[in-house]
Amino acid sequence: MPDLLLELFSEEIPARMQAKAADDLRRMVTDKLVAEGLVYEGAKAFATPRRLALTVHGIPARQPDLKDERRGPRVGGPEPAIQGFLKATGLSSISEAKIQTDPKKGDFYIALIEKPGRAAIDVIAEMLPVIIRTFPWPKSMRWGARSAKSGSLTWVRPLHAITATFGLETEEPDIVKFSVDGIEAGQTTYGHRFMAPAAISVRRFEDYEAKLKAAKVILDPQARKDIIIEDAKELAFAQGLELVEDQVLLDEVSGLVEWPVVMMGSFEKEFLAIPDEVIRATIRNNQKCFVVKDPKTGKLTNKFVLTANIEAPDGGKTIVAGNERVIRPRLSDAKFFYETDLKTKLEDRLPKFEQIVFHEKLGTQAERIERIVEMAAEIAPLVGADVEKAKRAARLAKADLLSEVVGEFPEVQGLMGKYYALAEGEDASVAQAIEDHYRPQGPSDRIPADPTSIAVALADKIDTLMGFWIVNERPTGSRDPYALRRAALGVIRTVLENQLRIPLMKVFISAHIEVQMDLKNRELDRLADELKALPKEVLSARRAKRLLLKAEEKAFPDELSEEQLDAAFDEIFDLRAFIDDRLEAQLRTQGARFDLARSVFELGTEDDLLMIVRRVEALGKFLDSDDGKNLLAGTKRASNILSIEEKKDKRSFEGAPDAALYKLDEEKSLAKAIDQVKAEASAAVAKEDFAAAMSAMAKLRPAVDAFFDKVKVNDDDPKVRENRLKLLNEIRAATRAVADFSKIEG
After folding, report:
1. How far apart are CA 174 and CA 177, in angstroms?
2. pTM of structure
3. Which fold has domain 346-500?
């Protein structure tokens, strides 16, 4: 079957847009092909700095013929309805329609419509101009004389040529004939801008890719990445050095070149006095170059690796020298910023935060820092951290945001704070906490491990979550401007991976109080400012004082109203539910069953994330056993019977059953087993031995099986029936010592 080759050749396509653009082109073309009945075998898209390309394999030469049966109006129906039916179906008269009998509604006209398939090349020629004109570039432009006309083409950069061919691999392909804004589709493309700019005539994809390579263009982005990384490693290895790999930078650099040529440059050793991360950020951000380290020490050397887009006649000496010339003043600036920062202590920067608003509803950065300090002090004993060290680290954690280096390179925030703290003689754990309190910043980022770091990291994230929860700036759908989902996952990972036992609700209540106190203080300050602004003749000093006291009473009442308490706990419980949802998602990514996590969360009795996870793990192992599966089946049967009978009687069957009403041995055995299991399972849960709790639950299985085999629940005697339903409720209550079995599937 024929293949399609499409290339859109233009001026420079920004590297950050290339991957998405290639995917968009593949998706838009293949979606339209399928919609037109042209089901293909495979498709692949490519992007370089100057072109988007697509190959689609195995497209049928023609669309399939379509046969459709369309139902029309009732026989004898109104004339306008019949005429509309004829127009819609293309029939010349109603006699061409068939009549179908509906036993309930009578006779109806039916039109049999046959639509012959069109040649695939004609369909493609019709759809490609629409795709090109509606291509979803984040930013696009018009150009040239045609840009003045309404409806002129917009593209990321000026579009110069369109290559579009269609045909069998064994035959000369046809050109897909169409034009867009005066640009005619053909089979001509162009090679490398500098080394092979001449026109190239291409036929199909294999021919196209080979000719581009001969013209110094590597079409496949992954192939360009492989060349860059392998050549860079080899270049570093040849000098006894090691490349510092950077996937994000590699992705970007591969989008800047069509013919990657890797070279090595150097800078003055005096700049190595700057922290490695600052050197790397300077060279990476300004010149898109990789840095190189000494494999023995792990420290950076004064070398860097650059990627050119040309094989220079002088072997690249001029290109290397040009990059060195640009990097030198950049490093000089970074060195100046670093040395300037060292002259001002972190603590001396803190007063400036009083003038910096963190969020219009949550006050200044200074207020937020004080809240984090208080929270860190409360969390510290829970994680084995020294309270004073945690408070000190929390106080200094944000200070480097006001430094020159972080102002230039925001990605080193926290890290620079650690360097400055160590330079000032701060305790090592305090300095480490300054760096680590932002962690983890993603699923692959490491978590804080030192107790001081853990205390400050949790305090920072919990204050963020609670603050935005209180002011109702919560995530909705895909919208999460303050990265609250990431903060919640950060709390979860920090707690679980450090095996921490933290009463979250207690911590959340403290965080809620801290935020609310700040909000009330801000309200009080606002009222005081308004009073001070009133003219003296309007407001006497005594009256001003009375009003101020009244405002203070309003801001800090002795007792909260019932409504205020309800609102506060609604916010706290809602945040806790959000954390639980994130934990469920985290457990699912680790392979835990959704229903098992939900069955534990549904109890609402566990405030310790680590214990929730252990309970879910033990439950999963138990339900993999025969005892677990059979007990689950029996428990679900009991729950189903209870639900039916409770709905029928419009009441629940709670309360202890009456032993005097047991008629059969199986009832007595089940009651005895339930009492035993309740005691053993509850004791095991209290000791946090969930495996033992599951073993205790397994003892219910034979008694439950025997009960359902021999006992008729809905006995003719109403009292016996009620007693047996209460016994079923006891099964449900007993299993809730470990989980809500009604939420478990199976």
Report:
1. 9
2. 0.80
3. Hypothetical protein af1432 (1.10.3210)
